[in-house]
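User: Predict the full complex structure for these chains.
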Amino acid sequence: MLFVETAPDVGLWKSVARMNTCREKIHNSIWVITLKIGIPKAFLYYRYGCLWETFFQELGCEVVVSSETCRTILEDGIRHSEAENCLPMKLYLGHVESLLGQCDAVLVPRFEGNRGSEEFCVRFLGLYDIVRHTFPWAKLITYNLKGSARAELFAFCAMGRQLGKSADQCFRAYQRARQRQQNQDLARMERQQRVSEGDGLKILIAAQPYISHDSFIGGPVCRMIREQNGTVLFSDYCNRSVCSRKSKAISTELYWTMNKEMIGAIELYKNRVDGVILLTAFPCGTDSLVNELVIRRVHEVPVIQLLMDEQQSDAGLQTRIESFLDILGERKKVYG
Amino acid sequence: MDKQLVFSFPHMGDYHVVIRSMLGELFPGQRVISAPPTTQRTLELGGKYSPDFVCSPFKYNMGNYIEALEAGANVLLQTGLGCRYGYYGEVQEQILRDLGYEFDFLCFSRAHVKPEKIYRVLRNLGCPLSMREILGVMMRTAESLRIMDALDYYIRENVGFEIVPGSFEKLQKQLLKELSEPQTMLRLERLKQGYARAAGEIPVKKSAMPLRVGVIGELYTLMEPFSNFYLEKQLARRNISVSRRMSVSFLLFGKKDRISLRESGGYLKYTVGANGVDSVCQAKRYAELGYDGLIHMKSFGCIPELNVMPALTRLEQDYGIPILHLSFDANTSEVGVETRLEAFADMIDMRRKKAYGTARVSGG
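Assistant: Here is the predicted structure of the two-chain assembly.
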């Protein structure tokens, strides 16, 4: 298997341009290996999933995405992780484990941030090192998102080179993947826009995408809202740059990219929805502070915080969501 | 500004002495009070008004602020770097305002920590000093921190073996008293030498190979003894030499992420936020130096330290050095920690005996 630990991204273009022709020759002459790349369906899969899948497919790899979260994955995750870790982290480890043996390498990226002073949650900084030490036998493939806005392109090229692809191929694959991801985001935004214009109780689920879209954490919540004839809107199906700007109205100091977009969505939707659910998982580091501030500063729309953990029972959740929706329904009748 | 300003700031270890003297020099004529000493009440107050699963330094800080406001403070200071700590300021200010207190909140976090911004804030508050004098105050503060931390480091390693009980503590108190008064650079230099000599002259009964334990982890829990139930003192009482590199002067002058990352010897590939890399790098150094055990402390849910725990576990196996992981929260019980510490101390003692076949004599 072609696998190199790291590839320096400094002077990438120069060196690669030289190597390009010779690489192509080698590739055409030797047998073609189809690598299977595993992508855990957790954490930032819900933000970059399409990008990752397309990129690897364009490079001629096979992509294996882990299944939806289920009890087994959770239990595997709990077994492999520190008890104190947040629930999404446990799920992530469970997903990684479910992929081992099914693929040649698992994609475990590291995110630090590529937008000025903004950052991702510190959890993503250590993701690669955690997985590497938890599963020492696993083959991992990684990229590091850090620096300027173009960092992502360079990181992807470096990652493609680990797979033995030329910079040119990587560049084209990245462009296409980026385009596909943007189209997907746009389609989601438009769909949400259409949905938000309909009737019925509209509930904004303000949460990190890996919490709200996960079938174990956010899944039951969405299902229960829909069962009550509510309409679910997601905070991450919004225009990110608009949300980022809007978030200043609630918090000026905030520097976590995803939380910024989350509270920006609240600001964006606060006059169009009937209620906001702050969905968070125990013990999410960034949400612990940000949600507190949201609860204290957003008064225009009813807000509740739902805290999910691994011992969550449906009954307790059902009661809280039902009563919240009942209140919202009555409120709507009175105020129109 | 015509109203009387009363400055205050949250506690961390004994550093309030130095900070108070710094603020006193920067704002002559204004009052500076340290928050009342951290007690159980502080923690209860803090815990009551803080979000549930925020890390415990937030709760301690909240408690300190509330007690300081009750004591009459009207200007509160906060800094902020690292992971969640950078965002403390805004949330704490909001909570305190919701509680109905009137105060000015100065938060030097992340983007606001630039020299020109600090200078502007000082001027707005009516600091009458010239630029040169301000720099002088800063430099003297830095030097005071260095002296304090150097003495503390020596004391931690030796306090378990003192012959006259309390002699080191007396020296420490004396130094803090001296540092609380305005100093000149020259006098600080004399203090440094004088106290280094005085500390060296305190008689200790220490064998050539005492039991040694390294303490690593999250900064606040390490440096605020109340939050870790005076763990270092408990270890000293069992005649164990404690080493801890973490201190404010380490954070300000000694911390280099890139060097730490290189020194962590492949246990970490990337930085993991806050002091995670330092924890691994220090753990590795202690392991190489042949320490008997390590204690890894953090507040509950501290993400950077959780990020390095798999790496530490790996290191533990590779070097065969036992690591005790302790996690502190507002609800941690002292007895639970004591029991685990006792077991840990006994365990490293037995390991030592097994390895060398000699009974440990009292005092080392």
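Chain B has three domains: 6-129, 137-206, 207-364.
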